[in-house]
Amino acid sequence: MEPGSDDFLPPPECPVFEPSWAEFRDPLGYIAKIRPIAEKSGICKIRPPADWQPPFAVEVDNFRFTPRIQRLNELEAQTRVKLNYLDQIAKFWEIQGSSLKIPNVERRILDLYSLSKIVVEEGGYEAICKDRRWARVAQRLNYPPGKNIGSLLRSHYERIVYPYEMYQSGANLVQCNTRPFDNEEKDKEYKPHSIPLRQSVQPSKFNSYGRRAKRLQPDPEPTEEDIEKNPELKKLQIYGAGPKMMGLGLMAKDKTLRKKELLCSLPDKEGPECPPTVVVKEESGGDMKVEPASPKTYLESKEELSHSPEPCTKMTMRLRRNHSNAQFIESYVCRMCSRGDEDDKLLLCDGCDDNYHIFCLLPPLPEIPKGVWRCPKCVMAECKRPPEAFGFEQATREYTLQSFGEMADSFKADYFNMPVHMVPTELVEKEFWRLVNSIEEDVTVEYGADIHSKEFGSGFPVSDSKRHLTPEEEEYATSGWNLNVMPVLEQSVLCHINADISGMKVPWLYVGMVFSAFCWHIEDHWSYSINYLHWGEPKTWYGVPSLAAEHLEEVMKKLTPELFDSQPDLLHQLVTLMNPNTLMSHGVPVVRTNQCAGEFVITFPRAYHSGFNQGYNFAEAVNFCTADWLPAGRQCIEHYRRLRRYCVFSHEELICKMAACPEKLDLNLAAAVHKEMFIMVQEERRLRKALLEKGITEAEREAFELLPDDERQCIKCKTTCFLSALACYDCPDGLVCLSHINDLCKCSSSRQYLRYRYTLDELPAMLHKLKVRAESFDTWANKVRVALEVEDGRKRSLEELRALESEARERRFPNSELLQRLKNCLSEAEACVSRALGLVSGQEAGYGITSPHRVADVQMTLAELRAFLDQMSNLPCAMHQIGDVKGVLEQVEAYQAEAREALASLPSSPGLLQSLLERGRQLGVEVPEAQQLQRQVEQARWLDEVKRTLAPSARRGTLAVMRGLLVAGASVAPSPAVDKARAELQELLTIAERWEEKAHLCLEARQKHPPATLEAIIHEAENIPVHLPNIQALKEALAKARAWIADVDEIQNGDHYPCLDDLEGLVAVGRDLPVGLEELRQLELQVLTAHSWREKASKTFLKKNSCYTLLEVLCPCADAGSDSTKRSRWMEKELGLYKSDTELLGLSAQDLRDPGSVIVAFKEGEQKEKEGILQLRRTNSAKPGPLASSTAAASANSICVCGQVPAGAGALRCDLCQDWFHGRCVSVPRLLNSLRPSPPSSPLLAWWEWDTKFLCPLCMRSRRPRLETILALLVALQRLPVRLPEGEALQCLTERAISWQGRARQALASEDVSALLGRLTELRQRLQAEPRPQEPPTLLPSAPASDPLREGSGKDMPKAQGLENGDSVTSPEKVAPGEGSGKRDLELLSSLLPQLTGPVLELPEATRAPLEELMLEGDLLEVTLDENHSIWQLLQAGQPPDLERIRTLLELEKAERHGSRGRGRALERRRRRKVDRGGEGDDPAREELEPKRVRSSGPEAEEAQEEEELEEETGAEGPPQPLPTTGSPSTQENQNGLESAPGASSGPSAPFSTLTPRLPVPCPQQPPQQQS
User: Fold this and answer.
1) What is the pLDDT of residues 406-436, one digit of tens each?
2) Over the chain, what is the mean pLDDT?
3) Rounded to whole angstroms, how far apart are CA atoms 6 and 90?
């Protein structure tokens, strides 16, 4: 038994080669190189270099093919023998009208073939029965012992096989009176079971790709319904009609055999019609029951059976009883006993009409059988008829590559139940051989094999006119590994065949799917083959070396003789496989490999190979023949002769064609062809001699190559004739080769004649040409050897050697070692000639003069020159340039002697040494003495350069020059003079670097040195004869320092104090100088003092975050006359785009240095300011009020600082410029602050003393400190040795204020005004004396509004701690009463408004006008004066009370207090959060970082700071913050420049005013309480 699928062992792997790129460029050369190793395995695999990836050139859309159908279990030889045996035995029983049913033993189908073979091997049926050896038969069939299987096998053998074996042996015809069997034609219509019928077995659906499930043993009497329902029973109905077994009954079936359902459900496949099936029924009696048969032919009965609904067609015995004709009666006799009696027992054969007694048959029949019956003779004839030759069918469907791939992938995925790329190759291999060896399972696949690339296109790019190739495709189209190119390479034999032999010279294409196989075969003419897998899944190969080819054939013939008996050339048909394990078990060496995409597989001559595909892939294959194939090709022709197989081409024609043009042959090929030609000529002579001996003398020349192959084939051995053939004049249709001259015809030898291609004289001539070609290399090699080794003592010329090299190239001699030696000799000789010419021509041109750059390129040393001369002398080539080289050598040696003499007499003159050196350069050869001369010349030059550099009169060199001389001195030839000069240079360089470092430290050090120290350093460094950059820089710095000192002296000794700008410029210059300057410290102190004074003055005058400079505030506003100009200028100041007042005064930077220019400009500015404000008042007075329904143009309306027109209630008019503003957008006076009761306080009804004066932020640009504060600043200014523009402007402002104060006091002291003031005093006292029950008791004391000292210096300022309770408002409990009292105060004031009457004084116009003018000038002053307030009270008392303004101020204060209350709550929440976070306010480090101003201000300062932080957090979310109040004395307390806390305002309303959020207005609108 063959090994099971689980026992399949993969053979060893074949050799795998990976050539380098150099090896890969010569395909046939590389194959010849690996042949000694690879041909021992028969096949090998080659992996190209990784980047060799030819593009796939097939036009996929146009590629259509029809594949072949392969039934796997018909491919294997032993399995096919079993199937053929089953066909025969099934046909044996079918002829007799019975259907074969294969029994099931031990859950598997009984192998009838193996059972029959084993019975024969064990001695036959009788012997086994006699010796009771059926148990041994069961054991050999691999059945388990002990189950009485032997008896069961004997029963099956007797019923099924034994009758067939008896018929095969003819035992049942021993007593038959034979006569010539003349009924052959009767059964020609019957065709043995065709190949498609073998698909009839239904495979099991209960197993996967592993081993199929065991067969179930059938029931004793299965019915038709059982068979239909039970798939296992269906599987047992295998091969058509079967035997009538003894003890089995017949139950007919009206259906034809179903095809066995394939694992591969291929499209468009329909099987042929199957013959009827008769089911054998086993009966208990053990006898065969046969129903009578009708006298119809077999085919008729077949047709009737296939359409009959009845269980079985009745067939009657054809008895000849009632006929009177004697001849007719004669024919009705038994062929066994020759008697005609008992005619009721006489049985008529439906095949030959012979008669047999049923009791004369062996075995005898108990009764007349039913159905068709044939006699033993007919049965034997049918069973022994040879089967049809096996081959593959073509599929009926045409595929494209895409449709075939979809089908193939779907089949594989369904079969293995997993994705195709995940199926292991080992699993596919085992399953393939299991299916191939199985007679139970029938799997059908399709294989697109032997597709002609000429018709469908090659997978490689091909150079033709059909399409244009890209450069990459062109490269692969000409590659030797392109399968279209390899067969016709120059070293290939097939290139000498003109015809395009498909499959040999022209590649074939192969499109495979899983399990599709190619069977064991060798290539036509035993040629090489090469296969390339373009893409797809691997292809598994098996190979056997050529040495074992005959052994493989013997094993296959031994194991399957039945196949080879009917088909001797079976292995040439590529239709037969045999398990590699079976071959290996019989000693055949087998190797295997998996060919992956992009890999080559090569098979060697007569190497059997087979294999199968692992899945969907595309491969291409072609044959090729090299010189070493020629002997194998000749042996193949002899082998074909014995097999009578047709040749693909004539081997003799190929040899002669190559011999006819020997010069075109490769040398190795010529030698091989000569050897083959010699053997062929010798054989031809022998054959023609035998022809003469037979007496055939007629001959005729024939150009066989012009004849079709079928017209020149030997009728005996089918070989294709070329050199000669024997023909007959009387039989012109045939000819024979000279090896079969006796098989031509029976005609006389005189009628036969020789047809020849060449005469026997022409063949030796061709042979001689081949010999010359083959031996031409030896002749050439001898000439080369003599020339190279100078064997005859004569050196060849260069031209002669070139001629030998050209001959080798023209004759295409192989690249041998001798040819390489010749090429090397030529290359060396040509290089020597070129070098010698360069040497001589360079001498003539003069190296040192005309081409100094060439010296380094061509100069050689003296030793090299001598070696070069020796090289030229030793070359086997005569060169006339050798004389020139000798002349150069002589010149060099003479020069060498002269140079030595000059060096020996040192010190020689530098001129002599230089001339010698120049002469040496012109020689073109490097002489050792020339180098010594060069060193001496360089030494002299270096010493001279040092001497010039250090000379006192020379220009001082830099440190780099000194270092360069030292470096150059290191390469100069040593001598005492050189050493001394280097020491001096090194010492000088060290000193210079030390002084340079010292100067560098002076320039870079933080501690600056005085000028005297630097002068000493510079003086000492002057003695060093080297240019020192740092010393030079130090010298320049010292010169700048002296110039700076001179400038300081000049500016300090001038007519005026120096200006601050000049001093700052000198300080900046002095700080940049690397020199310590005493004057610099004095200047820095002066500048610092001046800056300190300016800062103090700025704090005194400027509001917080003011956009004006101090100088602008101190100077008069010269352009105050234009409202639009003033307003736009104020906006420009806010945006940083303004021009300073000093520029508007027409003062340049130089004018500011002249005190006289400043005073004159100031006076002019005062006048312009006064005129401008008067013009502005007139303009603004004409503008409509906010409550008037003005119809004027928009440009005539007032514009608030917010950019909007003030309209409706809440607008205030500036008392100076008469322009209107929103009360919420500017700082307004606070009435409550001016009405707090204090010891000298005014009564509530003294309304003219209420703080209702309002100046807009455009008119009031500063804090307006008191005159006493300004005088203190002027005293400090007098102590400054520096002039500041601000100081001179302050002096002018002070003079202007004092002048105005004098005029104001004079006016107030006049008689009229004094009387008016007295009247006001009396009125105040009278009001004060009146009872005031409605006055609120909660008014806190504050500074009196009319206190002339309220805005004095810090000493006169009321303290913040002077509140009623001595505490600041820091908690809600303390704030709440203040809030209530303030609200009541405001309500009280509102209730008093109707009681206010006026004017209380009568001011005559003569008195009013001067006072109003003084008031105007006083409001323009940026100084607070008491006289200004007194004049304002007089003017107020002389007119009715401005109830509208008072009402507006009260409303604004109410709104402010309401907003302050919300801010107080937010502050309290913020304090609580701080406490919750861990008391951050108590952090001492933070307290240390806070300004002293804040820390010294107590709780009020802390509260104000928290208010500011809250403003930063809340942004613009709160109510608007009031602008600073202007003009009111009560609001000027903190504007004196002293750093009082924001909480120092008198009264409880101070916190509320500071907590009012800011409006989106410019910086002058900040409250004064927050300015410092």
Assistant:
1) 999 999 999 999 999 999 999 999 999 999 9
2) 74
3) 31
Q: Quote the pLDDT of residue 1506.
A: 47
- Establish how many alpha carbons lie within 13 A of residue 1269's alpha carbon, considering only the half-sphere containing its beta carbon: 29
Q: pLDDT (tens digit, 9 = 90+) per residue, 1097-1114?
A: 999 989 888 888 888 888
Place of tokens 């300080």: 1067
pLDDT, position 1026 = 77
Query: Counting every residue, how long is the chain?
Result: 1572
363 prior amide bond cis, ω within 30: yes
| 984-1016: pLDDT as tens digits | 777 777 877 787 777 777 777 677 878 877 777
Q: Among all chains, which residue has been given the structure tokens 């005492």?
A: 976
Q: How far apart are CA 439 and CA 82, in angstroms?
A: 8
Label each residue of 374-393 as H, E or C. Answer: CCHHHHHHHHCCCCCCCCCE
Q: Tell me: the pLDDT tens digits for 1059-1075?
A: 888 888 888 888 888 88
Nearest by Cα to 102 from 157, 166, 162, 164? 157
**Residue 1434 CA: distances (Å) to CA of 425, 1271, 1392:** 123, 28, 21
For 1364-1377, write each residue's pLDDT tens digit.
333 333 333 333 44
3-state secondary structure of 1000: helix
Measured CA angle at 521 (ends 520, 526), to 5 deg: 155
Number of H helices, E strands in the chain: 56, 33
Joined together, the tokens standing for residue 1441 give 């009370």
Please name every residue paired with 71 in a beta bridge, in sequence order, or none if there are none.
444
pLDDT band at 331; cut points 50, 70, 90: low
Instruction: Name the pLDDT band for 1150 (thresholds 50, 70, 90).
Output: low
**Do 578 and 78 meet the contact criterion of CB atoms below 8 Å apart?**
yes
What letter represents residue 921's amino acid?
A: R
pLDDT-based confidence at 1280, cuts 50/70/90?
confident
Cβ-defined contacts of 572-575 (< 8 Å, 24+)? 572/521, 572/643, 572/645, 573/389, 573/390, 573/391, 574/518, 574/519, 574/521, 575/75, 575/390, 575/391, 575/392, 575/519
DSSP 1518: S
- Rounded-to-10 torsion of CA 931, 935, 938, 939: -170
Buried b (16+ CB within 10 A) or exposed e, 222-249: beeeebeeeebbbbbbbbbbbbbbbbbb
Beta carbons of 575 and 75 less than 8 angstroms apart: yes
Q: If you compute the radius of gyration of the chain from its CA atoms, what whole number of angstroms results?
A: 68
**Tokens at residue 629, please?**
């194939």
CA–CA gap between residue 7 and residue 10 (Å, rounded): 10
Q: Helices in 224-375 by DSSP H: which ranges?
A: 224-229, 231-236, 298-307, 326-330
Q: Is 1489 helix (H, G, I), strand (E, B) or coil?
A: helix
DSSP 587: T
Structure tokens at 1193: 């143009």
pLDDT band at 1347 (very low <50, low <70, confident <90, very high): very low
Determine contact, residues 227/234, Cβ cutoff 8 Å: yes
Q: Which of 202-206, 490-494, 743-747 has the lowest mean pLDDT?
A: 202-206
For residue 139, the Cα-to-chain-centroid distance in whole angstroms is 66
Alpha helix (H) residue ranges in 1421-1535: 1426-1437, 1443-1476, 1484-1489, 1492-1495, 1498-1514
Q: How far apart (Å, rounded) are the C-alpha atoms in residues 1529 and 436?
A: 125
d(CA 1462, CA 530): 102
Q: Do 675 and 726 form a contact (C-beta atoms < 8 A)? A: no
The average pLDDT across 1268-1289 equals 87
- Quick check: 747 pLDDT over 50? yes
